[in-house]
Amino acid sequence: MNPDRRDRLRDAAIEVLARDGGRGLTHRAVDQAAEVPSGTTKNYFPTRDAVLRAVAERCLEQYLALTGQPAAGPGREGLAALFRSLLENVAGPGRSRLLAVLELQAEATRRPWLSGILDPMASGDFAGFELAQRAAGLPVTPQRAAVVTLALHAAVPHLLTDGPKTLAAAGLDDPDRFVRDLLDTVYPPDATA
User: Fold this and answer.
1) Taking the CA of residue 158 as centre, how many other CA atoms within 13 Å lie in the half-sphere pointing to its CB?
2) What pLDDT is stored for residue 168 in this prediction?
């Protein structure tokens, strides 16, 4: 099978899942989004579970490509810039992928095999963000690193739904301030350890 067409179908499936949710993810919807002849998606991915697997694997590939890029710049400022750019990505180019991941996580509650595909994304964030905090010279403990990661993860659905009152209440209406406040809370600038 044609690998370029396969990727086109997987990318279209991400868009369909992000736009229409789990119920809207059908072979026909993916065919239409990919602008391919009817039945093409079914030829590549014969079942709905095969489509879900393909979307999850494509999201993981995109995650690995994104996280394989250079990490934070030096110090606290570099770390803040990295985290701010990740949050800005949520509402920008990463929006469809992250909406699809949220849909896949909901599907994983009914299809546990999906968790095995999705798990490297979250676990990768915990490991990668801890390394970034260490590289910034912060007094990292596993607990502090986990708090930062969990706070960033918790921000994602709010950024995706874009409710102005919720964003303001969480401080997410200003991602730079949110990140700085988060780092200052977990790693007070005047603390030594």
Assistant:
1) 19
2) 96
Largest CA distance in the chain: 63
Is 13 strand, coil or helix?
Answer: helix
3-class secondary-structure state, position 193: coil
CB 22 within 8 A of CB 13: no
Distance CA 20, CA 22 (A): 7
User: Could you identify the residue written with the tokens 């709010």?
Assistant: 158
Q: Please say whether the beta carbons of 61 and 14 come within 8 A.
A: no
pTM: 0.88
Predicted confidence (pLDDT) per residue in 26-79, tens digit: 999 999 999 999 999 999 999 999 999 999 999 999 988 887 765 666 789 999
Distance between CA 15 and CA 125 in Å, rounded?
Answer: 23
What lies within 8 Å, CB to CB, of 189 at 6+ separation is: 76
- 128 with 143: CB under 8 angstroms? no
